[in-house]
Amino acid sequence: ADTSRDVSVKSSSPVLAAFKVFQQELDTRHDKYERLVKLSRDVTIESKRSIFLLHRVTSVPNTEEILKEADLKLDGVRHKIGQIAEELMGEDIYQFHRAYTPGIQEYVEAVSFLHYIRHRRLISLEEINARLVFCSQGAADALSPGSQVLTFHVTPSDYLLGVADLTGELMRMCISSVGNGDIDTPFQLSQFLRQIHDGFSYIGNTGPYEVSKKLHTLRQSLAKVEDACYTLRVRGSEIPKHMLADVFSSRTTLIDPEEGVV
Amino acid sequence: ADTSRDVSVKSSSPVLAAFKVFQQELDTRHDKYERLVKLSRDVTIESKRSIFLLHRVTSVPNTEEILKEADLKLDGVRHKIGQIAEELMGEDIYQFHRAYTPGIQEYVEAVSFLHYIRHRRLISLEEINARLVFCSQGAADALSPGSQVLTFHVTPSDYLLGVADLTGELMRMCISSVGNGDIDTPFQLSQFLRQIHDGFSYIGNTGPYEVSKKLHTLRQSLAKVEDACYTLRVRGSEIPKHMLADVFSSRTTLIDPEEGVV
Amino acid sequence: MSVTEMFGYIQGFLDVDQEIREDIRKVVQTLEQTAREILTVLQSVHQPSGFKEIPSKCVRSRDLFCKVRAQIADLKTKFPSEQYYRFHEHWRFVLQRLVFLAAFVVYLETEALVTREDVAKILGIEVVREKGFHMDIEDYLAGVLIMASELSRLAVNSVTAGDYDRPLRISNFINELDSGFRLLNLKNDSLRKRYDGLKYDVKKIEEVVYDLSIRGLAKEAESVGSK
Amino acid sequence: MSVTEMFGYIQGFLDVDQEIREDIRKVVQTLEQTAREILTVLQSVHQPSGFKEIPSKCVRSRDLFCKVRAQIADLKTKFPSEQYYRFHEHWRFVLQRLVFLAAFVVYLETEALVTREDVAKILGIEVVREKGFHMDIEDYLAGVLIMASELSRLAVNSVTAGDYDRPLRISNFINELDSGFRLLNLKNDSLRKRYDGLKYDVKKIEEVVYDLSIRGLAKEAESVGSK
Amino acid sequence: MSVTEMFGYIQGFLDVDQEIREDIRKVVQTLEQTAREILTVLQSVHQPSGFKEIPSKCVRSRDLFCKVRAQIADLKTKFPSEQYYRFHEHWRFVLQRLVFLAAFVVYLETEALVTREDVAKILGIEVVREKGFHMDIEDYLAGVLIMASELSRLAVNSVTAGDYDRPLRISNFINELDSGFRLLNLKNDSLRKRYDGLKYDVKKIEEVVYDLSIRGLAKEAESVGSK
Amino acid sequence: MSVTEMFGYIQGFLDVDQEIREDIRKVVQTLEQTAREILTVLQSVHQPSGFKEIPSKCVRSRDLFCKVRAQIADLKTKFPSEQYYRFHEHWRFVLQRLVFLAAFVVYLETEALVTREDVAKILGIEVVREKGFHMDIEDYLAGVLIMASELSRLAVNSVTAGDYDRPLRISNFINELDSGFRLLNLKNDSLRKRYDGLKYDVKKIEEVVYDLSIRGLAKEAESVGSK
Amino acid sequence: MSVTEMFGYIQGFLDVDQEIREDIRKVVQTLEQTAREILTVLQSVHQPSGFKEIPSKCVRSRDLFCKVRAQIADLKTKFPSEQYYRFHEHWRFVLQRLVFLAAFVVYLETEALVTREDVAKILGIEVVREKGFHMDIEDYLAGVLIMASELSRLAVNSVTAGDYDRPLRISNFINELDSGFRLLNLKNDSLRKRYDGLKYDVKKIEEVVYDLSIRGLAKEAESVGSK
Amino acid sequence: MSVTEMFGYIQGFLDVDQEIREDIRKVVQTLEQTAREILTVLQSVHQPSGFKEIPSKCVRSRDLFCKVRAQIADLKTKFPSEQYYRFHEHWRFVLQRLVFLAAFVVYLETEALVTREDVAKILGIEVVREKGFHMDIEDYLAGVLIMASELSRLAVNSVTAGDYDRPLRISNFINELDSGFRLLNLKNDSLRKRYDGLKYDVKKIEEVVYDLSIRGLAKEAESVGSK
Ligand SMILES: [Mn+2]
Ligand SMILES: [Mn+2]
């Protein structure tokens, strides 16, 4: 008799039939979410490794080689993002956004770092998205010219959050540059970081909540970079004029404090 | 001249050679950690689904069918745990423990739930571990009789944490049982839960830290189950004697309050 | 594009986003107001005197759902339809309440579970995501669970009002619902928590049925219970 | 096995675990004491007068490392060797300090980076995990980074003591180390944080070298810097 | 004005503020003491023997409210009346308790909801903010909700004491209160949370009525409900 | 005295302090162990079968309290008695648990509230601070509140075990306790929080008494309550 | 008055309150926008090239403060002026930012501390509470402390820009400010915390002055300091 | 004794405790005021002009310490002397500040580390706990560490003021202090953390000495260091 009550629910019940559909729908949704989480973790790890690789540019003679290697690594990451795009095909991307946002933010950080090193300017959201266009895998098999094109759109929020993290890497690069006797880069970086800082100040609390949290770290990074430039300047003030030409010919920025920097 | 300083570090440097080895060692370690995290997530999800499946036993006539289905599902989970064991072969398992402990705890929860439903008692750590013996994949290919045997050991802590979560599922089962007119199960469950509760009280704060956190939830679950038994008892006290035989013949436990329950 | 331009460009996005959210919030407030009105109408069924008036209360509620449909129609105009989940949190709460109210009306009218399709029709929204503003499945389920809890209250108050048959019918209905939910694999989220509450509703109703049956107040109880 | 027996059984495990940890804690305390003694010996190299005594200080430290080896030998007896990572947290901190001290002594003696093998020998432990109590790679790296920071301090104090060559040699050494670390992919953990600190050490030393070179106090500086 | 003069001047302001707060705190402590005394008097209504003594307990409470009025009169002298909201947090908690106690006394006396005007009179304060120390509306509502929870307890204890009519009357009263609150569009967080608690009180009382009705102990239920 | 001498001297002081704390920790661990043993013995009273064995369980607990007294006697030797509050935090938690256990035993034996004097005797400590290791008043109150919560659980389980009288007696006892606490002007945060929990215990037990009374299982309720 | 009427009446009050808050929020948002604009203008003074443009930046900021005054004038119309502290939390944050910006502009113009009177004038508000929307003293102090931290950044960037005199003047100014704050007996937690930050600013600026002075770049330091 | 009597009795105890705490808080406030005054006097030594006035500033501080002694004498009367640790938290913070101030005065006068005995004398308290209100050893150490950080600031400002010898003497003093602390086996968390800060002070001062030495401004460095 224990289970007698329940037997009255016939298995032919329309309620049960409906819930069987729900079951499948929910499982499908959760499975997709889980696959996206895994893809996102992969994207995160490889992006981080690209960033480590890029930090080597301050210590090697051949910058271009490293940039190419990083680009190759990021090609792999883009391939993974292509898989994310595949999963999201026909979906409302915001439904699964939480699953893959950490990976995308890290990718933005990596790709904007590479872009800064190469071009000394901030990559735009469009430039990032322009490289996230893929051929749908199904269509790729057919090799048809009209094969389906998949595009992945980084959201402005993810872009902002990635750029906020970028500032930490730029600060590291600045300190390394000083350590390696490179004097132009710190001043360039302080200018650039200040622009980003002012940009974030301008956005203020109208942006996503996580930005406000990262703002404090951004300020600290900026302070470190400004301190580094300050140090370069005060120590540069002591350089005896006669030593300039022969000893540190490359350190032109320090020649004459009165001329101003940049 | 920017990068001149660094060029002095020759690529033949023994320091660089050593660090190249370190690089590989660290990457290998992190990659393994990451693979274990992913396996653990799979184990968690499938274990959770087994638990949902097992909750259906209170509402269907054929319990055994569900138990078999759950066992089959858990075979899949065990296969995944086999892959974890494979990854850990020859490693210090505690080095990667944090990567896979959530999955293992959830598996303990699922398998002990199944065990309780079937045998009405607590599965032991040995019984759990006894089913986590695998043939190493490499050896399985060779089909040699002396193929390498892999064993996975659930730690006492993971066992405890899994059992602590089990109590939540038992509470749910208890409430469902009352709702389905099953009166024996709640009293059985309250006895069993009380034993587990007393066991945890006995261990107290000598166990892992997470246990103390779960103790509060355990107490609440016990209170819910004790309340359910209390309600069964007080409402049972009203039953008119003449109705007993014909109406609720199966509800023997309620026949005579004076006879005591258990 | 300079850094300043870039941030200006992003600020543009953020401004639009803020405005959309502000607009949504306003419509959602009107929806909440209407939902409270429908609830007030339906609450009277718990009163001893309210049982006879159930049909008329349902009619009144149906009228108010016209207002809901108009408000949701307004809501739809506030954002691009394919970005439903971007703003989901804003209306999630009220939509679940509305599903509950719709399901409750339908139950009172027909003693059957409203289908997702019917709810969608009552609220004037789509069933399938691809077609536009739709009935998210988890919100539908959450609304149904709120109704289950209301029904356990109704079972109790039916007895007070002297209606001894209704609890048995509610019991069967809720049991069927419970069986349905058992088929689902839920995450550890708010829906799971609500579903745990369903067990208590089932238990409460079972207790009511038991109380009636031991007092011989419900002959059907026996037949239902023992078959 | 009854529930009570089961919990008794588990309690047994936990008790053993507690005892092991208690034992480990005690030995680790003695290790910390010895580490502080070695540090006191080595700190004197920062004094102007201390530079001449470096060799004798190194000898004294080497003596104290005998004590370390005995204490670690004792530590090894406290737990099953294949469970190194179970108790890792207990000695992690002191082991990193000891790596730093060993690396510092070796640097003062030879101006070279101590290898993982050498550190292991100095501490009386294994290099490879499989062989027993070993030198975890991240702890080795952490210890090396602590030393780097000590070397930047040494560079500063060398100048105060009138030794203008040492900073240049330290600079070359630290640069090599920095190149090594750039090869690694670190996680966002304490090692990463320490490595970030290395950048400041490199920067500080570069500043010292710069100060010397613009004053013509270090002719080698030029040759190193410009090649 | 020099910086020093300016800061000396500012310190004067800060001192005044500190003193005011200290003074308020002291009076609030005496108010809390009196509130506890009133509560002790009223708690006895939950005792089986206490039901007969309700009128006398109300009289005693009314006496103690004289003390409350004196203490609040004292409180008013401690700060400029237009700065009510500057120091609101200090007395907010105790004032809500006092509203609860006043509302409870009035309910016990008349079985009706105390109006904000009446509470203000009982506490010796104003209704309208412009006139001085007044009855903040959210504090009034919070106090009423505390009373609702006390009434659900009273319904339970009435049955224990053999009074089977009171729960029905409480049920009607609480239902009316619930309808009233449903009219409100609450934003305030803590008030909203308290209001959510009201649903449980409603349900609890309905279950008490159910228990009486199924046992035939509440024949009046229907007649009361339909009037 | 040189700096080195001075710090050597200070280290002596610190060592003594640390040794004392280490010693205290060890004794406290054994106390916790014994407390857990007593708890295990007493928890069996919640078993349906346990009710008959209450007297024997009390006897067993009393035996274990001998062990407690010996351990506390040991604890006292670990530090100068006038430094009680210096090390208070070390034993505070376990002492509150022991007060709870002692109060629970005394309640099970006599159904009365253990006095501070009696607790002191059971634990082998002083009542008055001046005389030595004593029963801190807040710890005593905290222990009593833990017991109140255990009693509400006991009331529930008594009914399950078929003992319908005990809840009524517990109800009266808890009400008395509640009145007592209402006399106190608690400032202490953690104690205040625990006291808030008492309200739930009171309510819970009242509901048990209600359930019994409505079913005519508690005819004595009124007579007990009105004496 | 029926309960329904009463609650309808109360809803009126609540609606007014919510509308006021909604209105305030909107104006505060525009204020925040303007504050961010002023900040963007003033932040350019940290650019090496920005130092020459300080006067023009101040002029631009002064222009924007017109907008601020208009917005605050608007804000004042949103609520009765004697209820300042009821809604204080809404504008507290932005007002502190505006004080900072005003203080910064005044410092850049005159190298003096803005008085509370001047801030009030710049923002178009009152000094004395009795006269209307006024400058709360703690908000004034908080804004001044934010400026102190900005000045330590300015000292650093002045050097980078080749201006070696400014840091000395900033140092004297900050020292005077620190003395001023030392006169205050701060209780307010958030203000106290901000004040602790001032110590770091003082130290940071002293180190800048040190760096200049040891390189002979700050010959004026002594003369300024000793006047 | 009835429960009511017992709780009334307990309330007595609680009242006494609260009064004591209130009294202590008041005296501690006056102590904080005096501590701030002494700090203001001593802060001027960081000014370029302040160096000549150090002796007179010390004299003024010594005068203010008379006031401190009177206030502490007052504090002692507020509670039984053997309950020092019961109320320790109340004065701990201010006492550490006073130790810092006393140690700073003594350093400025003699360039030596104040002993615990001397601090006790300056503050008018005991060294040994048994004799009454005494100088807790951890508070003494904390105060000394605050002074170390102040000295690193003084070293920087000495250079600005043109005093190039003082930094060298401070460097030697701080190194000695560091050695002293290295003898200690610190467990205490907050003290350990402060001690970690000492490393930064040591490093900072070494860098000041470096700056002097590389510019030939510190010829005495070596001779001082080698004595
Ligand atoms: Mn990063
Ligand atoms: Mn679970």
Automatic annotation (TrEMBL), chains C, D, E, F, G, H:
One of its GO terms (cellular component) is nucleus. It comes from the Eukaryota. GO terms for molecular function: endonuclease activity; hydrolase activity; metal ion binding; RNA binding; sequence-specific DNA binding; single-stranded DNA binding. Mg(2+) binds at residue 150. Its main location: cytoplasm. Keywords: Cytoplasm, DNA-binding, Endonuclease, Hydrolase, Magnesium, Metal-binding, Nuclease, Nucleus, RNA-binding. Exhibits both single-stranded and double-stranded endoribonuclease activity. May act as an activator of RNA-induced silencing complex (RISC) by facilitating endonucleolytic cleavage of the siRNA passenger strand. DNA-binding protein that specifically recognizes consensus sequences at the breakpoint junctions in chromosomal translocations, mostly involving immunoglobulin (Ig)/T-cell receptor gene segments. Seems to recognize single-stranded DNA ends generated by staggered breaks occurring at recombination hot spots. This is Translin. It comes from Cynoglossus semilaevis (Tongue sole).
